[in-house]
Amino acid sequence: MNNALGDPPFTYTEVGATKGRLPDGYHRFRLRRPIGHGRALFELAGAEILAYRMQKGTGIFHEASTPTAAPGTRLTIRLGMGPLAITAPCRVVYLLDEPDRRGFAYGTLPGHPEIGEELFAVEYDSADETVYGLVTAFSRGGAWYARLGGPVVRLLQRFIASRYISALPTGD
């Protein structure tokens, strides 16, 4: 059933769960890696995340309904190559706009091979001024081929999460 705006529903009920405890019944992961130091890097990386730099930097970004992430933004990523590529629809669930955390989470929509949510963020540790790239997700196979792929799909997700963080600006 679509919502009042005519948008398709998310394919999972735990919408927004990447803000806290990740739900049971899903593959869950969190990757947090330092990318440099300083408030300026944090501000730059936060702006870049909202402009889909993580997705664009991995080559999977297809299109978005807004130039920067906002709640309700529809976006698609493209997985694979050529005629075997899959266009996977998502919608932004929420933005993080805190003094030391910036980013957004999107959730899967009908037609996405996975079911779940992913958070893309940057964090600033004021104690030592370290800036961290962060990807947190919970998912399970939605399409038959994602379920069949099991462990291979999980390895691919972790590989792409690492590439997401590598796509962020770095520096000291």
Which class best fits the helix and strand makeup? Answer: alpha+beta
What topology, given as strand order, has the largest sheet? 1-7-6-5-4-3-2
- Identify low-pLDDT runs: none
Strand content: 35-45%
Name of the top-level CATH class: Alpha Beta
Predict the CATH topology. Answer: Alpha-D-Glucose-1,6-Bisphosphate, Chain A, domain 4
Mean pLDDT: 89
Radius of gyration: 16 Å
Helix content: 10-25%
What is the CATH homology-level superfamily?
Answer: START domain
* Number of extended strands: 7
Query: What is the domain total for the residues?
Result: 1
First-residue to last-residue Cα separation: 48 Å
Give the overall silhouette. globular
What's the total helix number?
Answer: 3
* Name given to the CATH architecture: 2-Layer Sandwich
**Biggest sheet character:** 7 strands, antiparallel
Secondary-structure element series: EHHEEEEEEH
Keywords:
172 residues; alpha+beta; Alpha-D-Glucose-1,6-Bisphosphate, Chain A, domain 4; 7 strands
Brief characterization of the structure:
The chain contains 3 helices and 7 strands. By secondary structure, the chain is α+β, with helices and mostly antiparallel strands. It has one domain (26-166): 2-Layer Sandwich (Alpha-D-Glucose-1,6-Bisphosphate, Chain A, domain 4), CATH 3.30.530.20.
Topology (SSEs and partners):
Layout lengths: L26 E11 L1 H12 L2 H6 L2 E4 L9 E6 L6 E13 L2 E8 L5 E12 L4 E12 L2 H23 L6
Antiparallel strand pairs: 1-7, 2-3, 3-4, 4-5, 5-6, 6-7
